[in-house]
Amino acid sequence: MLDISVIIPVYNASEFLEKSVASALQFDEVKEIILAEDQSTDNSLEICQKLADQYTRIKLFQHPDKGNHGAAATRNLGIEKSSGSFIAFLDADDYYLPNRFEAEKKIFGDSKVEGVFGAVSIEYLTEKGKQEFQSKFNNASLTTVNYPAEGQDVFKGLLGLTPKTFGTFFHLNALTVRKSTLQKNKLKFNEILRVHQDSDFIIKLAYHSYLKSGIIDVATGVRGIHDDNRITKIVKYSPQYNERQFLFWNSLYEWSKQNKIDHDAAQHIDLQKKAFELSVKKGFSKTAAIFMAIVRNPKILKTKYRFTYTHS
């Protein structure tokens, strides 16, 4: 039987936390649930303590200084404190479905597989959250990939370098990974990134580890969409959006320089980083820099930065 540590970073999630934890407790494969609390300003800490007192499988941890350090650092804390052979993640406002680990029980029988990922659906918890999510993600009901994949095809697919469109990022809630591969490859969440640290982690994981798709056509978990989802607050192509995209791609760029990734992947990451680096420039210097970048490599026009957008 798998022995899984489920890591739940907790910040101001009192309304949802008990349902999230209950969804993980239903599985015999879950050896422990790590509640990594990040200085919530509501009563989340009290709920965490109550749950830890009630269930022996639940363990509560905080940062050494009891401070607020963000989702990346809090997930890293959970990984550090975990004792299971496998790691799974769950956001405190989301929950697992009963089929969450069905694929893992079969696929991890192959010792070469180091991680399994699947699909998650969404549940609208507030009308405002629904409107913000649908305006940004076009009412995508399932966060998944378009076809089964494994090995380096997952890495290439996440970067958009496969002949067929791989699809959206699979969600962290649907990932189960051997802890040994995180230790062997020294993989952690980048604590500089306040958003996109999950995408950054997944891409690096897909390069260093052998990942395989599990259940990708139906949901294995549910994301709660509400007023306080951070990812829906950022207006696409706004200065804040471009800055955070730059930090994300720059993190991958700095990582790529330390690893012997193939030319196409390295060039793709480099162009994405350069494009969003250009986005912070202003006036004539920006126009000139964009022109020179296009002359050097016209492929920069195919990056995620929209060059036709008018910035101040």
From TrEMBL:
Kindly give the Gene3D superfamilies that the UniProt entry links to this protein: Spore Coat Polysaccharide Biosynthesis Protein SpsA, Chain A
Which Pfam families has this protein been placed in? Glycos_transf_2
* Range of residues in the leader sequence: none
Q: Which domain of life is it from?
A: Bacteria
- Occurrences of domain Glycosyltransferase 2-like (ranges): 5-121
Give the protein name, as stated in the record.
Capsular biosynthesis protein CpsI
